[in-house]
Amino acid sequence: MTFYSCFDGEGKVIARCQTHQDIDVLRRMGRPIAEVREMKNEEAVVCSLTSSPSDFNMDY
After folding, report:
1. What is the dihedral of CA 36, 41, 44, 49, to 10 degrees?
2. What confidence tens digit (pLDDT) does each residue in 13-59 have?
3. What's the pLDDT tens digit per position in 26-37?
4. Coil, strand or helix at 55
5. What value, to the nearest 5°, has the Cα angle with vertex 44 and ends 50 and 32?
6. Rounded to whole angstroms, how far apart are CA atoms 16 and 1?
7. How much is the pLDDT for 9?
8. DSSP per residue over 11-51, as a string?
9. Cα(31)–Cα(6) distance, rounded to whole angstroms?
């Protein structure tokens, strides 16, 4: 399973998403996503343990 980190223009993580559709939703909501990076396997383990990266997204 692939997870993505979304960053703002200052390089701060603003969301973690599981699909590109999730990223598109955040963009439509007006989140200032400047960069999207695929998470490394060791980073994605955290998302897997919490069931979903959307658990990190307070906007959902």
Report:
1. 170
2. 888 888 889 889 889 999 899 999 998 877 766 555 445 555 555 55
3. 899 998 999 999
4. helix
5. 90
6. 13
7. 92
8. S-EEEEESSHHHHHHHHHTT----EEEEPPHHHHHHHHHTS
9. 10
